[in-house]
Amino acid sequence: MNGNDLLNIAGAATEAGAPDSWQNFPAAQQATYPDVAALQGTLEELAQLPPLGTSWEILTLRQQIAEAQRGERFLLQGGDCAETFAECNSTVITNRLKVLLQMSLIMVHGLQMPVIRIGRFAGQYAKPRSSDTETRNGVTLPSYRGDIINSPAFTEQARVPDPGRLLQAHACSSLTMNFVRALVDGGFADLHHPEYWDLGWVEHSPLAEEFRRLSEGIGRSINFMETISGKQAGNIRRVDFYTSHEALHLHYEQALTREVPRQAGHFNLSTHFPWIGMRTASLQDAHVEYMRGIQNPIGLKVGPTVEPQQLVDLLRVLNPRREAGRMVLIHRMGVGQIEARLPALIRAVQDADMPVLWISDAMHGNTESTADGIKTRRFRNIMNEMELAFEVHRDNHSRLGGVHLELTGENVTECTGGARDLVDADLRRAYKSTVDPRLNYEQALEMAMLIVRKHNQA
Ligand code: PEP
Ligand code: CO
Q1: Ligand nearest to the CA of 127
Q2: How far is CA 50 from CA 56, 443, 448, in A?
């Protein structure tokens, strides 16, 4: 179903750039709800529920992204490919936060600059799929499109889009956000106590040991400064954490797009940093129309088929006044394509004088299947694309200002390689992702260390 089929759900679309104007454009990757009246009722309910964030948090993030565009900050965006309702629990949430905090400490220390932390969480429930259907043993059903739409179980009933899931996604996002806020405000992120971030299940890991040495060293320096100055070091008991998700389910995004007092324009208050996925990023797409109407900073995935002129046209639509802090370009080329495709894009953006922050998603261009059909990514390919990203930017007088990674704090075996040199046979042992393979704890720490090395060489 495209946006046009649903024109009358929220009333006829009005002015360009209004929260419902996307309904005049073809919307790819949307679910087909059999009961449109039920969907409409749910959307009305959703539009009344409190939002998850505030406009001032969004504007602060925009400010920080503008600073990153000037080379004063580095951006770390990471989390699950897809969150699930079943994993909306304290263990999964804290473990993911611990990994992101550990990575960001490695980066702050190694890069000697502030890091913007953005979780792929509290709303990452909708997934684009390469096919509308899935066939197993001669049975064809609608594809799983993320927990906000249907369920991954391979039965007809599980795959029917259910509007009730929109409310559940909002509830799980709020619960996640609430818990993360309480943790980061309540001392969990306190640099005096990096031991709070230890993962219970990690044993005898050389990388965990390396992290412990680093964090203990930082702790000693802080104590030393506090002792000789007789004062508490500045703001080190808490950190800022922002949220992000792919703004894919446009009815959901619209229902949480609001005007706020004393600010011009509309804000998507379901998240701080929504992004446009690769499959919905063409100029004519409803997703681009929706995103140009909000005040949030936005991400745009840039894949290997994007032409330089197309990218500049998209930037003109999404950021017509060339505002700093508005655009983050997340390139995801694949290790085999980045050197051939990225330079022309960097130069086109420079020639058009568009302020952007370039960040590297070294995951999504490197997905492959093993001989027994398991979706995986090779650590070596991810690492090589990341290294090339730093080099290509440097060689083109540009700067790689951040990274976008799929990772988890759970003990999984989904990507091969890394410090433990996982092989294809290990994948069956602990493969939990319902969609894309994620870096596990050790692979994520190794990646953070590599990012520091490459950044400092570039
Ligand atoms: C993703 O980030 O999970 C994703 C689907 O990425 P892309 O749109 O770049 O393929
Ligand atoms: Co993914």
Answers
A1: 1
A2: 16, 37, 36
CB of 455 within 6 A of ligand 1: the answer is no
Average pLDDT over residues 15-39: 94
Q: Which of 353, 154, 152, 147 is nearest to 252 (CA)?
A: 147
User: What pTM was computed for the model?
Assistant: 0.94
Is the domain spanning 21-189+238-457 CATH 3.20.20.70? The answer is: yes
How far is the centre of ligand 2, averaged over its atoms, from the C-alpha of 84 (Å)?
13
CA distance 245 to 81: 10
Kindly give the number of the ligand 1 atom that is closest to the alpha carbon of 82.
Answer: 3
Ligand 1, atom 4: nearest CA belongs to which residue? 277
Ligand nearest to the CA of 129: 1
Asked if residue 220 has pLDDT above 60, the reply is: yes
* 194 alpha carbon – ligand 1 mean position (Å): 32
Q: Which of 97, 148, 86, 91 is nearest to 121 (CA)?
A: 97
Q: Residue 237: pLDDT band by 50, 70, 90 thresholds?
A: low
Q: Which residue has the higher pLDDT, 357 or 233?
A: 357
Residue from 301, 120, 110, 325 nearest 217 by CA: 110
The pLDDT score that the predictor gives to residue 4 is 39
End-to-end C-alpha distance for the chain, whole angstroms: 46
